[in-house]
Amino acid sequence: MKKFFYLFFCSIFVVFVGLGFVGCSSSEVDKVSKNLTTYAISASLDDEKKEITASEVIYFYNNTGTDLEEIYLHLYPRAFREDATIKPYTALTMATCFPNGLSYGDLNIINVKVNGEIKNHKLAGEDEDILKINLGFKLTNKKTVEIVIEFILTIPNCTHRLGFYQGNINLGNWYPILCNYENGEFQLSPYYSTGDPFCSDISNYKVEMKYPEKYKLCSTGKIDVKSDAGISTATISAKAVRDFALCLSSSSEIVSTNVDGVLVSYMGYSYDSDLNANLSLAVDTLKYFNKAFGKYPYNSLSVVKTPFIYGGMEYPNVVYISDAIDDESEYQKVIVHEIAHQWWYSTVGNNEVTEAWLDESLAEYSSALFFKNNPKYGITYDDFVSSALSSYLLYVDVIQTIRGEVNTQMNLAVNEYQNDYEYSYMVYIKGVIMFDCLSDAVGEGKLLSGLQKYYKSNKFKIATKTNFYDAFESACHKDLKNFFEGFLNGTTIISSIN
After folding, report:
1. Residue 319 burial (C-beta neighbours within 10 Å; 0-12, 13-18, 19+)
2. Which helix (H) or strand (E) holds 360?
3. Average pLDDT for consecutive 10-residue bins of the chain (498 residues)?
């Protein structure tokens, strides 16, 4: 996500656990979907108020390895409320985020029930953007509890992951979602403005969304839409996905095709002349990554053109591409980068707060590999890498001149970078350089073998750098820890391409 660095310096919805899913026919996904948490969301959009009233039933399967008496959920939309102290945008991005002026959003909890019993709920976290639920009993490991949350979502007038603007509605990170349990505790990180500050386990989803029929809809999962009396009802199913997002548009057209059992769709504006060209690019990208890394496990993939503050954003089965990008090559790069995230983030997860390089560096370098193997798009691998190197060196030189020192670490948490530019140059651009150097050292064949091992060994999990090292050392038959650590810690000096 956030492919903007090239610009710098140049009523309750009832479901039964494990039943009613028609979204994924893959036997692999079916197998993985057993014993997962299930989210069942029934939501209705008030288009005039730009509010969503929803009931969310969570069948929380405790796979933390320990007994729990309380659980925590992220309420990401609260970052858009007026009194939020940690906001998902900065002073530099505010004007782009709010073209019509500052606007606020929120997520208000109406009530919470645990196994049918109303429970008191508490806002927690650094910026009161966490829902803390005391279960009232000890939930043992490998057992399930039913949690019902009724809430009202207020959508801000903005171009962010969550927002409405010019007939489009982005619904990313819009519902209460369980905090990731890691190192013996729930991770309560807020919605930082830098990077993609998210981490979540794979779960099953069954979502019913009601909205005015003037809108077209793309989302995570398989969609079935019926309309009556001016209202469309989308019933959406998804198994073993890491998150759930939707986009609605009143001025778009959707073109689709089936490729290797996957319904690939592109939603662009109805007056665009490049709908089919961008669909073809999505198809080519899916085919190449299937071959290079391992088969995409889901049966739908949608690319959506929408107002968006950054270049693009990835969600399982669906990606945002900013309608503000007016350069064809740059638009193509963003499409490829975001689709690469279906392998690096969506299928192979990672903590995007603490180890953002694990998915962003891989997604960006994957783009370079795609264009190398698809020359018809006119973007060469050498130009891709050379651009990254020259841009990186210029950045380092300028910051060194201004500040007297420059941070070159790739492995900081997203909130530890001084600004978006520092984050982007260290995580995206330097990542391309790192993998290009690795390719020179071990050969492209072994590099691809490492990516394939990493993908195969960590599908549907949350991977760490240790898993990453293990995969590449196994594929390359070399101790590569020092190589990677030198780039990640900033001790490797980059001066030219080998």
Report:
1. buried
2. helix 357-373
3. 42 36 63 97 98 98 97 98 97 97 98 96 96 97 98 98 98 98 96 97 98 98 97 98 98 96 97 98 98 98 98 98 98 98 98 98 98 98 97 96 96 97 98 98 97 98 98 96 97 78
SS3 for 20-54, per residue? CCCCCCCHHHHHHCCCCCEEEEEEEEECCCCEEEE
Q: What pLDDT score does 16 carry? A: 34
Percent of residues in the chain assigned helix, strand, coil, to nearest 5 = 30, 30, 40
Q: What is the DSSP string of 70-94?
A: EEEEE-GGGGGSTT-SS-SS-TTTH
> Beta 106-114 vs 144-154: how paired, if at all?
antiparallel
Tokens of 472: 């590449």
Rounded Cα distance between 459 and 316, Å, is: 13
Neighbours of 45 (CB within 10 A): 25
Cα of 135 vs its chain's centroid, Å: 29
Cα 412 to Cα 16: distance, rounded to the nearest angstrom? 41
Q: How far apart are CA 277 and CA 21, in angstroms?
A: 32
* Nearest CA-CA partner of 60 in 8, 10, 133: 133
Q: Is the pTM of this model over 0.85?
A: yes
CB-based contacts of 379: which residues, under 8 Å, 6+ apart?
329, 332, 333, 371
Distance (Å, whole) CA 339 – CA 337: 6
Question: How far, in Å, CA of 148 to CA of 299, rounded?
Answer: 29
Q: Which domains does the chain have, with CATH numbers?
A: 5-250 (2.60.40.1730), 362-489 (1.10.390.10)
